[in-house]
Amino acid sequence: QVQLVESGGGLVQAGGSLRLSCAASGSRFSISGMGWYRQVPGKQREMVAVITSGGKTNYADSVQGRFTISRDNAKNTVYLQMNSLKPEDTAVYYCKSYYFDSWGQGTQVTVSS
Length: 113
Fold this sequence. Notes:
Blueprint: E1 4-7, E2 10-13, E3 18-24, E4 34-39, E5 46-51, E6 57-59, E7 67-72, E8 77-82, E9 91-97, E10 102-103, E11 107-112
Parallel strand pairs: 2-11
Antiparallel strand pairs: 1-3, 3-8, 4-5, 4-9, 5-6, 7-8, 9-10, 9-11
């Protein structure tokens, strides 16, 4: 089992940037693919970006070219760099460990117009 803790959310104006972090407990973080998801009230949680244990990445079309997912296995942390933010990016953002099937508690991102 692994515990995930997100941080870095907040309020930002449209066009601004934020970097989310997801810190994982445990010693086997490096073997797990990781993902960032987001959810708004009344809608299903949607995938934003994923990164494999080997560092391959994939993005939702809506964030391609604006968001970057990365990982630092030495720090047991996965990041989501979000640039050129839009009001429609407003959501609670969650990280997920695929190997351990674990979710973090989420961090709120609000983008004002």
